[in-house]
Amino acid sequence: MKAVAVFPTRKQVSVIDHPEPRVESSTHVKLRAVAIGICGTDREICAFHYGTPPRGADHLVLGHEMLGEVVEVGSDVRNFRRGDLAVPMVRRPCRHETCPACRAGRQDFCFTGDFTERGIKHRHGYMGEFVVDDEQFMVPVPPALRDVAVLVEPLTIAEKALLQIRDVQKRLPWTCPVQAAAAGIPHQCHTALVLGAGPVGLLGAMALVVAGFRTFVYSREPLPNRKAEIVSMFGATYVSSSAHDVDALASMVGSIDLVYEAVGAASLAFDVIRVLGTNGVFVLTGVPGRKAPISIDGELIMRNLVLRNQAVFGTVNAGRDAFEAAIADLSVFVARWPDAVQALFTNQLAIDDAPAKLLDGRNSIKDVIRYA
Ligand code: BGC
To answer: Second label for 267, Cα 20 to 30 Å away, from 72, 121, 247, 302?
Structure first.
C-alpha cells in the first residue's frame, strides 16, 4: 500500500510502498482509512525537529490522526465488527513493570518516557491505507460523525485538559462551568482565553464554549481573517495580538479564569501568565522549539501564583476518557455549528499530494487525506 514516510538521515519526505499490515492476533482490528489528518507535529517531524523511526528502520510512516472503517477483526475482538468506524489512539505503554501509569492503561501519563507513539516515536503511524492494532487502542465512533471524526484526536488534547481542570477546580466549593456542564446544570459564566488559532486552539475554544466559558481566542493574524470568522461562528471572540498587546487584552477581557495555551511559544505564555485571574488555571499544551532563553518577571509571576491561588499545568497526549469526551463534544459542535466545523477543513488531499502539504502548511487549518 502507499504510505507517507519521513527519512530523517536522508532528510526526505515521500510516498513509499509499505507492506499492508495484517491481523496477526486474536485481539487485532484492521482499519481501512477513511480520513487522515495532518497536524503541526507532522510538519515538525517533516522539518526533522523530532520524530523517531521504529528501531532498525531508516524511515517513519507519519500520521497519528485517523478515522478508519473496520474491515477485519481477530476472533477475540468483542467491541468492533466489520463496517464500524473507529479512531485509533496514539500512545502505547512502556514495558516497565514499575510504571504505574502504563500498567494502569494510562500511558499518556507514562513516568519512564519509554512509551512509543504511532507516527511520532518508534512506531509507524497511520498515513497509509490500512492500519492494524489491538482492540484496546481503538475507540468506536458513531456513523453520524463519519465526515468529521478525523478531528477527534486533535480535540482530545483539549478534552484531557478539561478533565484535569475539572479535577483542579474541585478545590473551589462552588460550581464552575466545567463541573456544571458535566452535570448538565446551568452555571455562572467564567472567562477562558485560548492562545493560538490553529486546529488545537480552535477545537479547544469550541470545547470551552460548550463547557460554558465566555471564550476569547488570541492569535497573531490581524483582522479580518478566516480564523476570526470561524471563531465568531461558534460564539467566541477573536482578538489579534497585532492590534492588542497582552495588557490591552487583559483590560478588554476582564478577569481570566482559564488560559488554554496552544501555540508553543514560551514568550507569549509567560507574558499571558502575568494576567491570569484569581483562582485561575493556566494549561500549557504547546511544545516550544529550543530557542534562546527568554527573560520573564519571575517575581511577579510567583507572587501572583501564591496570592491568587493559581494553578499551572502542562498536558500531553490523551487517554480513552478524553477520546470519548471528544466524540461526545464533536457531536455537539456539529449540531450547533456545522459551518464552523466544516470551515476547519482547508484542503482535502489524495495521499500523493500529502508530502507537498506537509512541507508547506501556509493558510491551512486542518488538511486531510481522504479516501473514497
Ligand atoms: C499528539 C499527541 C502526542 C504529542 C507528542 C501531538 O501532536 O496529538 O498525541 O502525544 O504530539 O508527541
So the answer is: 121
Looking at the CA of residue 153, tell me the nearest atom of ligand 1: 8
The whole-angstrom separation of Cα 150 and Cα 70 is: 15
Global pTM reads 0.97
pLDDT single digits (tens) 114-125: 999 999 999 999
Asked if CATH classification 3.40.50.720 holds for the domain at 156-314, the reply, yes or no, is yes
Average pLDDT over residues 48-61: 96
Q: What are the domain boundaries of the chain? A: 2-141+344-370, 156-314
Q: Is the CB of 90 under 6 A from ligand 1?
A: yes
* 183-192, 193-202, 225-234, 332-341: range with lowest mean pLDDT: 183-192
Which residue's CA is the closest to the ligand 1 atom numbered 3?
317
Instruction: State how far the Cα of 158 lies from the Cα of 330, in Å rounded to an integer.
Output: 12
pLDDT (average), residues 203-210:
97
Q: What pLDDT, on the 0 to 100 scale, is given for residue 281?
A: 97
Looking at domain 2-141+344-370, does it have CATH number 3.40.50.1000? no
Mutate to test the pocket of ligand 1, among 39, 41, 102 (most ligand atoms within 8 A of CB): 41
CB of 155 closer than 6 angstroms to any ligand 1 atom: no
Q: Is the CB of 117 under 6 A from ligand 1?
A: yes
Average pLDDT of the chain is: 96
- Smallest CA separation from ligand 1 atom 12, residue: 120
Distance of CA 274 to the CA centre of its chain: 25
> Do 359 and 13 meet the contact criterion of CB atoms below 8 Å apart?
yes
Distance between Cα 197 and ligand 1 center (Å): 17
